[in-house]
Design brief:
HAD_sf, 10 helices, HAD-SF_hydro_IA, DNA polymerase, domain 1, Haloacid dehalogenase superfamily, subfamily IA, variant 3 with third motif having DD or ED, 2 domains, HAD-like_sf, Rossmann fold, six-stranded parallel sheet
Length: about 210
């Protein structure tokens, strides 16, 4: 294998609950009604996709671009107060980066990926947001773009994921997929059956040995 590509939310930062709380609060403040499926539906969506979803499915009374910009601004405030880095994540990435080229392929907007990298100082030369792609996860686009920017074939990459849509995206990119299941929003069992499952991100360096 030639490289390791990490998802961000749920793999390196415990942010899925933060996203959920911020979106729900924002939706309520702008005329929306949260649905039972909204949280899982939006996992993996690119910024334009979930901005449109908030308007069309949740009923937020703004334009999609206004909705996404408002949520991202609230996320920046939340991260400024506390960046919820998952225990062992920084050490795991450093250990892996000492042996492989590494990248991040995330549905998070580029500005939030940059906050994470600035705070942690991690040596990640390639960071791709699905904002840059035609479609978010479960489409493989963001993984394929990350592999391309690393200059390696997608099939020669490990991908590290936590969610159903993220796992589907990495599998569709024909990568070797390792799952660190999100405890708050567990991935679908039928998807986990197709990948190698780790108990925590701290297990990753040894899993790649």
């Amino acid at each position: 294998m030639d490289a390791v590509i990490f998802d961000l939310d749920g793999v390196l930062i415990d942010s899925e609950q933060v996203w959920d709380e911020v979106r729900q609060s924002f939706a309520a403040a702008h005329g929306g009604t949260w649905t039972d499926t909204a949280t899982r539906d939006m996992q993996g969506m690119s910024t334009p996709e979930w901005g449109a979803y908030l308007v069309e499915a949740v009923g937020v009374r703004l334009e999609p671009e206004e909705a996404s910009a408002g949520v991202i601004a609230e996320m920046e405030k939340a991260y400024a107060a506390h960046l919820p880095v998952i225990p062992g994540a920084v050490e795991a990435v450093r250990a892996v980066a000492s042996r492989f080229p590494v990248a991040i392929a995330s549905s998070a907007p580029a500005v939030l990926i940059r906050v994470f990298l600035d705070v942690t100082g991690l040596p990640v030369p390639v960071a791709v947001s699905s904002e840059e792609c035609a479609a978010g996860k479960p489409s493989p686009d963001v993984y394929l773009l990350a592999a391309s920017r690393l200059g390696v074939p997608a099939a020669s990459c490990y991908a590290v994921e936590d969610s159903t849509n993220g796992l589907k995206a990495a599998l569709a990119a024909e990568m070797t997929v390792l799952a660190v299941p999100n405890p708050h929003f567990p991935p679908a069992a039928e998807v986990l059956e197709q990948v190698r499952v780790l108990g925590s991100i701290s297990e990753l360096p040894d899993a790649l040995a």
